[in-house]
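As noted in the main text, all predictions were made from sequence alone. Below is one such record, for Oligopeptide transporter 1.
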Amino acid sequence: MKAILILYLHNQLKFSEDTSTVIYHVWAMLCYFTPILGAIIADSWLGRFKTIFYISIIYVLGNAVLSISAVSPIFTDLTIEKVITFLGLLLIALGTGGIKPCVSAFGGDQFVLPQQEKQLTQFFFVFYFSINAGSLLSTFITPILRDDVQCFGDDCYSLAFGVPAILMFIALLILVLGYVARLYKIVPPQGTILKEVSGCIREALRKKRKTHVRKKHWLDHAKEKYGEELVADVKVLLKVLVLYIPLPFFWALFDQQGSRWTFQATRMDGTIGSWTLKPDQMQVVNPLLILLMIPLFDRVVYPLLGYCNLLKRQLPRMFTGGVLAGVAFIVSGCLELQLEQTYPTAISSGHSRVTLINTLPCKVIATPSWADDTISMTQYQYDQSKDISIRSENEMLLNEFKVEVNFTAGNCGNIVGKADPYKIILQEKTAHVVLITADGNASGIVVNVDPPDDIEKSSSGLPKLRMLYNVEVDKIDSQVFLDGDIENYKFNFTNINSTKGFVVSGTEYQEVEPDSYDIFLADKLLGKIDVKLGGVYDFLVQRNLSSDNQETYQDIGLFVVTEPNSIHMLWLIPQYFIITASEIMFSITGLEFSFTQVM
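Prediction:
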């Protein structure tokens, strides 16, 4: 579920990237805070098995509520949809927190120590291996359920969230079957030690303040009330807790895989032959590497390091794992510096941007008033200007500019004349697209298309595509149809304001699958275009300007507004490899260390 959660928050619930990241990590924080509650319940009242059973019911319910929240037709108000989503996430945080401290410990209960210490170590390896085998499958399949299945005309988050709910329910049934078959050793609750520990610390601090008697250790003040054995244990506990200070920092970094690293992947190219790797599928690398590297560390790396007298104990391994987590983010930062060079350049205040497109069937010479030189373009060529200053010397905005177009009328299809220098209005921080085309009198004109270009890449990483058009008014009710191997799309002519029987305008952008598309107007094939991940494109449908045969329409291919992603998603593998090695050394060793210390 975590694999797609960040995209659900951003794409469907319309939170910004930063807000989505905050929500994601606050929820992750709850998931790692609520185990305290689960541990208290297990130790004080229910025991580990019953705690797992009852709280797993809350877990299943939370997944079900989250799945229902993603069914958009049920919720006409986005605010209500957000509230239901947060309720589902809260139930999941309670559910996962309730069972998280019990599952690994319940497994450890099945072993007799110290006789089966080696088997216990192997159990934690197998336990972690099994978790990541499930994670491998789910992280690969869930994005497919989200993206390749359409629900209510959009990504199918409800199905992607619903499948984990069903599988969690099946897991609960399997757990119960094991109990009915008497396969488990059930350790009864022995009471929580938190009350005694907190009382011991509180008593020691109270007596230390009230008495001036010096003790060898400040906790020794509590011996009279709590006894030497408990005080000694608390001393050891406080020393051990110091070792856990790096724990939140490690997991804060590790969980960036589901947020910032996923957003990072949306700005990269996932094309592998004829298959496209989805940004949220990149998270599959971690469990895949876990499955490969756990046996490698167990059978090769640790024995080899032990032969060299290195990392033989648990704490040095955990320390090394923490250092590797930092190294992974140094690598990620270096990759981000390279990615920043592929991002669209924002338009600064006091500036505008213009893309001139020549659709006339001849060479034209354009002279825009914002440029020092003329611009020569053959048919279907386009020129993207650098930022144009639209402020005067006294800092007043200058909106009105002129574009003069020259061409040889006799060599330009059925175009018989040209318009006077055309005035266009440029807006601040706007990417305008200006068509050099023809009106109903076959005279050359210059049209500033509304709406302007959107230079930003899509948040999902998919290509963004829109249509520019110059068509007769009677074509307005027709649709332009894109036929692809993965998905089909429709573009409607949206502007009915016409000039002498013709309409020159543009549509809004749609996110489409990276693919090759055949373009049809009604039943007539116009041509073929190819779009790639991260690219922003305009394509043109216009009446024939080469002859008087107005039944012929031409698709001229693509105009690239923003270049597609050029750095491949597989460049994320080095940082995933390092964070996975870090996880094995820090997390798996930490599980074993924690269990053996409390024994």
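The chain has five domains: 1-190, 193-243, 247-342+573-599, 344-453, 455-564. The domain at 344-453 is CATH 2.60.40.2890 (Immunoglobulin-like). These features were considered when defining construct boundaries for the mutagenesis experiments described in Section 2.9.
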